[in-house]
Amino acid sequence: MQQTQRGLSLVGSGSARLAATLSNSDLSQVVDTSDEWIATRTGIRQRQVVTAQDSLASLAAEAGTAALAMGNCNPTDVDLIILATSTPDDLFGSAAQVQARLGASRAVAFDLTAACSGFVFALVTAAQYMRLGVYSTVLVIGADVLSRWTDWSDRRTCVLFGDGAGAVLLRASERDRLLGFELRSDGTLNGCLNLTYQAESQPLVGDTTIQTGTFQPVTMNGKEVYRFAVKRVPEILEKALFHAGLTAAEIDWLLLHQANQRILDAVANRLAVPAERVLSNMARHGNTSAASIPIALDEAVREGKVKTGDVVASSGFGAGLSWGAAIFTWG
Ligand code: COA
Description:
Blueprint: E1 7-15, E2 20-23, H1 24-27, H2 35-42, E3 46-49, H3 56-70, E4 80-84, H4 95-102, E5 108-112, H5 118-131, E6 137-144, H6 155-158, E7 164-173, E8 178-185, E9 193-194, E10 197-205, E11 208-215, E12 219-220, H7 222-244, E13 253-256, H8 261-271, H9 282-285, H10 292-302, E14 311-318, E15 322-329
Parallel strand pairs: 4-5, 4-6, 13-14
Antiparallel strand pairs: 1-7, 2-3, 6-7, 8-15, 9-12, 10-11, 14-15
Helix pairs in contact: 3-4, 7-8
């Protein structure tokens, strides 16, 4: 008798290739900054930005296509697509456009917004459907185009972010490769990192006014976010590791949201994870928000660093504020 498959495996990864690269010295022509300041404070050397030919949906679909190819999966086999993004092409959601671009005609698709924690939140959400046996082939995509919402005159934020998309393909399996997770939110700290809607009241008819307006560029209290990350990320990783029945000494790879090399170093230090087991690509991509974890994972898998059976401890953190950790075995 065939056993019901109520676990999940991560069997494919992919990421989008963006054509336009902005180096730190390019940015020094836009704002008063330098390669030395940016590289020393953040570890970032360059980032990619979307060009006029691309969109959030096109990047996400490119990443999804690559993950399907690695996992030898036909688009019509996909049951569910979760698109983690805070920068959709359409506020009604971009996941359905990604579904159409992929030709994943059977899949239901929706957006999930949790900023830089989005990929981890989406991975854990996907796992719940799979553990219930509702869906067995799921694409989790993290994609963001923060260049659309960056204040390019604010040197404290514009040097940090980049655009990108990464994806992971999940398949139902007997053994569950998601070993443990923990998710958190704290809205009392919401003001530390925002991309807010600014409303303007417009009289409509009689005494009734409606709101028109637009979203304002990203604002951030860098010091507060830094403090939050170096305290909360090690804590939540330890909790997720506890659920997985593991210790930090047993992980093969630490895969953090690529926000700042100093944050990665501080978290690795707190957990006593040696530098050679920390995945870092922010020098080349900057902070790509929900895309950063799946891009770093995809690059490490394709470089042959992350191998089948390796234990990966991932953690996303950012606006909300929100943070989460997921411990999984690759392959
Ligand atoms: N180039 C040159 N100088 C800059 C600069 C830049 N790009 N950005 C800020 N500065 C200046 C400031 O104006 C300030 O100068 P002043 O002392 O004359 O006023 C000085 O550098 C220090 O600024 P400060 O904001 O205190 O720097 P910091 O040491 O806190 O570093 C961050 C700034 C953003 C690198 C750091 O706070 C950080 O990494 N925070 C976390 C951000 C993050 O990861 N966000 C995303 C989470 S998902």
